[in-house]
Design a protein that fits this description.
The structure is a single chain. With 390 residues, the chain is α/β, with parallel strands linked by helices. It folds into two domains: 92 residues, 2-Layer Sandwich (Alpha-Beta Plaits); 291 residues, Zn peptidases (Aminopeptidase, 3-Layer(aba) Sandwich). It has twelve helices and 14 strands. Strand 2 and strand 3 form a beta hairpin. It starts with a helix and ends with a helix. 51% of the residues are buried. The structure holds ligand BES and zinc ion. The site of ligand BES has 13 residues, from helix 8.
Amino acid sequence: MKIIGMLISLSFFCFAQEPEYQWISIGTDAVESLNQKSFPEAKLFAGNQMASVMRVKKNQIKAISHLMHEKYERCAGFMAHKTEEEALEAASFNSEKNRAGSAIFANYSIDMASTVEPMIQEVKETNIRNTIIKLSNFENRYYLNQTGVESQNWVKDLWSKYLAARSDAKVEFFQHKNWPQPSVVATIQGEQIPNEVIVIGGHADSINRRSSRAPGADDNASGIATISEVIRVLAETGYRPSRTIKFIGYAAEEVGLLGSQEIAKDFKLNNKEVIGVMQLDMTNHKGTHDKDIVMMTDFTNKPQNQFLGQVIDTYLKIPWGYSQCGYGCSDHASWYRQGYPASMPFESKMEDINHKIHTNQDTIDASGGTAEHATKFAKMATAYMVELAK
Ligand code: BES
Ligand code: ZN
């Protein structure tokens, strides 16, 4: 603490000509306090469940120190560093948990505009709309029914068609032991760092607690259609990621996240390095008038949620906010429980939720008849993928 204090004051008084920024490593739980309001120049660069790396203005250090002391009752709640590398090292080698490799770092810088911009311009509302309509035309996509198997065949065929010309891609079923519906997994092999994986997923099943007809247009044909359009754009533009990307249509979410639980456990068991998970569950019903996208704060990763907010500000410039489910409401919770950084960007605040879900009235017409809202999610997911897989 004393040494850090001395270093900080040294840099204040002796090196007045030095760059005005400094790097800090800080407990992730404290990141939200260094928000835009109180520290407008503070920028999050990397993070996991335990520690994060930020760049701050040198003249903010004192105030941050004060805050950490007051709010978190920590003496040295953060460490200051001269370079990003030093900060990353401090953050990732400071704890047993990190050394064991269970907490993986992601780079949250945003600097891929020349790749992202042309890709998001390629996102087409009509494609998303047509996929939603096709999926909701199945009687239901229930995990125990033959129609739930057929709908997954259809998703696998669609993704295979999009990726047909790509030798770096494959589309497979993940078969589950206890029910017939498989999950669908499309993999784009990373060119430089293939062992690090980004997962973009959503559940492909549907349910109606009263009858057999379960169109599930919003819950969750919208998420699968959003993901399908990201895959199409990726293939169409010839995008090749450095890291590996996996798109997953989970089976059996509606009955307790069964499909994603098996998959997340399987990844953990095989020591897969998943650096980011995005869950797309309900993307096409605009329920909140002044927010287009809200990040669910429970069972999700704070630094990644903030990163997603910055991605939206940079590439979409639409209003976003926060909300919460109050329980493990979708497949992101399965990944979160295995210790992976997951986010769930959602279509509305919880208080404005689409009440037609899980009924025979969850149709695209009940969400305005177009896929306008879901289009924003496809753009966001594309930008997230490119920025994280670089
Ligand atoms: N898409 C919903 C989750 C949801 C609903 C999120 C409303 C936000 C607002 C999901 O398919 C679902 O129905 N989840 C179940 C829980 C799950 C553990 C079976 C639910 O919310 O009842
Ligand atoms: Zn549901």
